[in-house]
Each structure stands twice: as structure tokens, then as C-alpha cells.
């Protein structure tokens, strides 16, 4: 029988725990409105359990558990899409058994499909490690037959203990998260503001975003959490109402996540100069922070907001329907899942505008406003024949974005080159399906046709697709475009102007670099000195975990069919 392992204390940077030597949890410092900690200092945190506050402690602890025969499970935070046979692909929420964690970036694990490497930063270790024998239906049957009473009692105690584990994990990760935010605000931002010769106000706003607002919000959130925490009997704690009370406040993370790619870019530019590298390292040492670079600390809020739904989902799993907190936990889980989804959608938009900017740069003879001035997402693309009332036809490649439809013409010799031919304002037109046969208004025989009719003028545009299914896709895409615009308006989904300008600037630089033969993405270094326990794999993947490459905490999504069309046409190449 494989013993159950409670692994709540073995966590990532964002969620390191403070566990007392007797197995209980120390009461953490409540942070007052001025941001000062009343009870715990950094030294006390280290003295309480120094091992897990040190870099590499997590990997060491996990490997010790694995070598002792314990089974360690992790839960995927984000999708990991890969075509590499050496890497383990999975979706958010999948459970992975961790088989080796000797490398800080890549762990070796197993899911239902296979064993392979996966990025450690894409997973969250489960608080309650499931006992494999519990999944055996035969053992459950024996318990029911041999002694239903004792079995139920043990199950109830076990449920209470598991809920206690999750409650303590939520509380402890929140306390340490506050410590990280305090270190950023007091250890980095305060020192940077003293050195006006090194940093402008705009640079600091770009690098740190609204993290001070997040720190202030999280202090109050932790204060309210502590009031709901039952120290004597943690499983009786009622945390759900606290999440519901503050659910609107978590929206401030959206601005931070949107700003994060620009922050990483600005920071990486500064780090090219040795004086900035030395300055930030001096800040870290002065604040007595753990051995993590500034960009690692700046990633913690992005990771944190995505972990709340997973923590609440696990808490809900071990909360009985009779528990007084059940309904609030269930509502809090849905609320935080919606917050995370909204933030992820905003981040997806930011990824999209970078591709759109690269696409525009590749178009020859572009005229007028930049595509990003009004659009942030590609809805559909493909070839259509545009007809005139005189019966003339024009073969064009069309790209449907939110708010506008762009028309391009392929080069006669180089079919991967596109020339700009114009655009249409989708806000001012209505889509009309046209039946096969002779069109009365145009006096033309048409097949697979539809019209875009202006709402303000007499202008009408007639298009024909090659196949009926192509026409159906275009009609659906036009409906999707209108719905997307409406949803963006309702959700307040608007990309900041500075992000649009940054995307265009980066695309233009990348275009110039390619013309000079530069490589836009340096190859990742191969980790040295790694000796895997499993002989089936020789080296860790040669790619860096993607959030380190693209400065985001989640991997790039699998390209849709729309983007696949672009790859055939040459633009939007990575």
C-alpha cells in the first residue's frame, strides 16, 4: 500500500509554507494598513523552517519523498502543447505523477499517455496526495461489508484532515505571498525611486505596474481571511465568504497581467547593463530576499491569480454539502474561475496583437491606420471572389478582424507575398445571405454568394466562395465578429494604447532584423551536470519553459486553423 503523503509544505516560490516543527502551522503576522508586519520577520520565517525557504528545497524534498516510495502528484495550471516526443503534453487541470524533480525547470512525470519531461512552473503540487489503493473498488467493497460504522468514522476524520490541509495551504501561501509583495515594494521599488538618475517614472511604471495596489488589496484580503480562519479546528474555517466579499477587487490583476509582457521586455533591456544587474542584486540582498531574480518575483502575481480557482476547487472537493461554508465555497470557486478566465482572455488578446502586428508589417503597401488601432483579434481568413455590377471579378485574400475586413492580393510569382488592397468597416455593414441563381439587383448568376450591405449608404459588396461550406464559414465568422465585438464591449476588453504601440514597434524591429539575417529567438542553453534517474531519457528538453521565452506564465496556445492559413502565406511566422 502506498502511503498518503501530505505535501502542502513543498511548494513553488509563490506558495512556500511556514510549518512549525511539531507539524502545526504558526500563526502568521497580520499586516496592518501601513504595511508593517507585527509578528513575523524574515529571520523568523527562515528559523521556523529554513529548508523550504531556500532555493532548490522543493526539488530536494520531492525527490526524497519519491525515493522513499511515496507517490507525488501535481495538477496542471495551464495547457502544455508540444510536438516534442521528449515532452509531456497536458491540459489545465490534468493530474501528473511526478517521478523526478532534480532539475528546477523541467520535471520528469507520467500521465495517462506516457512518461516525459514537463515544465515545473506549469504545475501546482496537490495538497492531498491520493492513496492509490483508495481507488480500488474491491477495497471499498470490503469496507462496506466488514464494518460500515468504523469505515464511515475513519472517512469522516480523513475528510476533516484533508480539508484542514487545504485550508492551511491557502492561509500559508497567502502569508508568504504577502511577504513577496512586501519585498518587491520595499526592497525594489523604494530603492529604485531613490535613484532618479537610473530610473524614470515611466520605466518604474512599466516594470512594476500596479503591484503596489495589489499589495494593498492583498493585505486587506489576508486580514479578512485571518478573521475567518479557525486556528483550533481549521476544517471548520469558513473562507468562502471572504473570497466573495473581495471578488471585484481581484479585477486589479487584469491590469498587472496585461502590463507584464512589457515589464519583462523593459527589465530585460536594463539587465543588459551590468550596473542594473548589480543594483537589483544589491536590493535583493539588502531586503534579505531568497535567491530569485526580480523577473521571478514579478511573475508571482500572474501565477497567484491563476491558482485561486485550483485551491478553491480542491477545498470544495473536501467540503461536505452539510458544511456551513459549502455554498460560499462553491460560489467563490465560480467567481474566481471567472476572474481567472477574464484575465486569461486579456492575456490571450495581448498575444494576438503581437501576431497581428507582425502580419501587418509583412503586408506590402499598407495604407492608413494600423490594424491595431481598431482590432485585436483575427476571426477568419480565406480567399473570396469579389464581383462588381459590371460583372468583373477580383480574386482576393480576405482577413476578418473585429471591426474590419482587410483585402489583400497575392503576388503573381511569389504567392506568399501579399499586397494591401483596402478594408471595410464591419461596424457599418450588414451581412446578407444570397441564394444560388440569378441575383435580381445585380443581374448576375451567382453561387455560394453573400453580400455586405452598408447601413448608412447604398454601397453593396458581393462575394462568392468556392464551395458551399466556405460560404457557411464566412457567414458564421461574420456573426462571430459581431458577437465578439459585443462581448468585448460588455467586458470592457480594451487593449491599452501603449501595448498596441509596443507590439507594432517590436514587429517593425523584428522585420528589420530578419531582413539583416538576425535570428529573432536565441537557442536555449542545455542544462549542465544533470544525471536523470531514468535511463529512458538522456537530457532535459533543449527548449526553455515557454513563460521564460515569452515572459508570460502560460504557454502559447495551439494555433487555430485561421493562423494555420497564415503560415501557408508566410506572415505570422514565429
TrEMBL record:
Residue intervals of the DH domain: 162-346
PH domain boundaries: 377-483
A Gene Ontology molecular function term of the record: guanyl-nucleotide exchange factor activity
GO cellular component terms attached to this protein's record: cytoplasm
Pfam name, any one: RhoGEF
Gene3D superfamilies reported for this sequence: Dbl homology (DH) domain (1.20.900.10), Pleckstrin-homology domain (PH domain)/Phosphotyrosine-binding domain (PTB) (2.30.29.30), SH3 Domains (2.30.30.40)
SMART domains to which the protein is assigned, alphabetical: PH, RhoGEF, SH3
Name the UniProt record assigns to this protein: Spermatogenesis-associated protein 13 isoform X7
Gene: Spata13
Amino acid at each position: 500500500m502506498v502511503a498518503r503523503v501530505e505535501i502542502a509544505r513543498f511548494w513553488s516560490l509563490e506558495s512556500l509554507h511556514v510549518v512549525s516543527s511539531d507539524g502545526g502551522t504558526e500563526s502568521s503576522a497580520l499586516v496592518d494598513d501601513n504595511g508593517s508586519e507585527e509578528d513575523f520577520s524574515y529571520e523568523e520565517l527562515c528559523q521556523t523552517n529554513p529548508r523550504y525557504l531556500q532555493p532548490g528545497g522543493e526539488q530536494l524534498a520531492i525527490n526524497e519523498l519519491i525515493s522513499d516510495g511515496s507517490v507525488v502528484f501535481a495538477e496542471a495550471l495551464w495547457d502544455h502543447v508540444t510536438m516534442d516526443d521528449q515532452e509531456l503534453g497536458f491540459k489545465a487541470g490534468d493530474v501528473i505523477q511526478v517521478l523526478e524533480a532534480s532539475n528546477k525547470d523541467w520535471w520528469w512525470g507520467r500521465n495517462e499517455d506516457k512518461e516525459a519531461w514537463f515544465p515545473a512552473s506549469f504545475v501546482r503540487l496537490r495538497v492531498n496526495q491520493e492513496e492509490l489503493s483508495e481507488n480500488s473498488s474491491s477495497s471499498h467493497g470490503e469496507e462496506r461489508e466488514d464494518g460500515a460504522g468504523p469505515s464511515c468514522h475513519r472517512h469522516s476524520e480523513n475528510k476533516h484532515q484533508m480539508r484542514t490541509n487545504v485550508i492551511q495551504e491557502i492561509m500559508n501561501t497567502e502569508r508568504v505571498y504577502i511577504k513577496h509583495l512586501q519585498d518587491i515594494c520595499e526592497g525594489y521599488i523604494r530603492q529604485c525611486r531613490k535613484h532618479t538618475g537610473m530610473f524614470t517614472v515611466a520605466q518604474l511604471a512599466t516594470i512594476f505596474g500596479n503591484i503596489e495596489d495589489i499589495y494593498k488589496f492583498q493585505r486587506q484580503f489576508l486580514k479578512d481571511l485571518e478573521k475567518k480562519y479557525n486556528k483550533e479546528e481549521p476544517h471548520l474555517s469558513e473562507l468562502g465568504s471572504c473570497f466573495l466579499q473581495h471578488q471585484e477587487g481581484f479585477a486589479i490583476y487584469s491590469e498587472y497581467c496585461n502590463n507584464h509582457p512589457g515589464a519583462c521586455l523593459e527589465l530585460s533591456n536594463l539587465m543588459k547593463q551590468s550596473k542594473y544587474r548589480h543594483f537589483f542584486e544589491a536590493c535583493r540582498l539588502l531586503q534579505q530576499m531568497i535567491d530569485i531574480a526580480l523577473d521571478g518575483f514579478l511573475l508571482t502575481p500572474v501565477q497567484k491569480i491563476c491558482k485561486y480557482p485550483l485551491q478553491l476547487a480542491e477545498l470544495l472537493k473536501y467540503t461536505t454539502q452539510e458544511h456551513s461554508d459549502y455554498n460560499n465555497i462553491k460560489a467563490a470557486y465560480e467567481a474566481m474561475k471567472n476572474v481567472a478566465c477574464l484575465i486569461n482572455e486579456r492575456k490571450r488578446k495581448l498575444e494576438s496583437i503581437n501576431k497581428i502586428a507582425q502580419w501587418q508589417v509583412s503586408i506590402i503597401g499598407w495604407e492608413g491606420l494600423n490594424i491595431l488601432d481598431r482590432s485585436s483579434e483575427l476571426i477568419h481568413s480565406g480567399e473570396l471572389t469579389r464581383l462588381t455590377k459590371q460583372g468583373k471579378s477580383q480574386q482576393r485574400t480576405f482577413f476578418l478582424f473585429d471591426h474590419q475586413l482587410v483585402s489583400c492580393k497575392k503576388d503573381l510569382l511569389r504567392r506568399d507575398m501579399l499586397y494591401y488592397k483596402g478594408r471595410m468597416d464591419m461596424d457599418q455593414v450588414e451581412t446578407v445571405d444570397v441564394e444560388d441563381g440569378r441575383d435580381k439587383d445585380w443581374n448576375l448568376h451567382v453561387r455560394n454568394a453573400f453580400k455586405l450591405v452598408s447601413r448608412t449608404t447604398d454601397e453593396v459588396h458581393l462575394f462568392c466562395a468556392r464551395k458551399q461550406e466556405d460560404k457557411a464559414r464566412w457567414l458564421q465568422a461574420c456573426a462571430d465578429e459581431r458577437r465578439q465585438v459585443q462581448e468585448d464591449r460588455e467586458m470592457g476588453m480594451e487593449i491599452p494604447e501603449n501595448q498596441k504601440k509596443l507590439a507594432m514597434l517590436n514587429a517593425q524591429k523584428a522585420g528589420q532584423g530578419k531582413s539583416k539575417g538576425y535570428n529573432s529567438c536565441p537557442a536555449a542553453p542545455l542544462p549542465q551536470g544533470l544525471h536523470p534517474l531514468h535511463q529512458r531519457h538522456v537530457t532535459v528538453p533543449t527548449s526553455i519553459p515557454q513563460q521564460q521565452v515569452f515572459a508570460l506564465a502560460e504557454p502559447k496556445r495551439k494555433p487555430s486553423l485561421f493562423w494555420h492559413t497564415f503560415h501557408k502565406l508566410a506572415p505570422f511566422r514565429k
